[in-house]
Amino acid sequence: MMIFTMLLNVPLILADWFFVVFHSALILFNLFGWIWKKTRKAHLITISVTLLSWGFLGIWYGWGYCPLTDWHWQVMEKLGTQDLPNSYISYLLDRVLDCQPDPNWVDIGTLVFTLLAFGMSIWVNLGSGVKK
Predict the structure, then answer these.
(1) Which ranges of the chain would DSSP assign to H, the alpha helix?
(2) Which tens digit of pLDDT belongs to each residue from 100-116?
């Protein structure tokens, strides 16, 4: 019976790892994608969509709403995980680094670094950046 239960959880475990890898990659791209000339336009799109999600979808789902986090939490809850944090960054810090900083500081840091990356993206994409 236990092996059967484990086999039923394989798709959820794979989904969990997919979200960890994909969401982490997106976060890193949102922070640093503006640096490379070939990724600048894609970066401006992804970081804009992220900020629109946080603000616009946040009207209905709460400030900072991210569908990727929501979907990942649904998977985690089906796997039996409880008491998930509101912040995906807090979750990653805990899961990957076993670090649990104050959630308010995590939220502030997340917003500050995201806005800095967004500002840099606008700067390099709209012609005020370094030109050859």
Answers:
(1) 2-32, 40-52, 58-61, 67-78, 88-97, 103-125
(2) 999 999 999 999 999 99
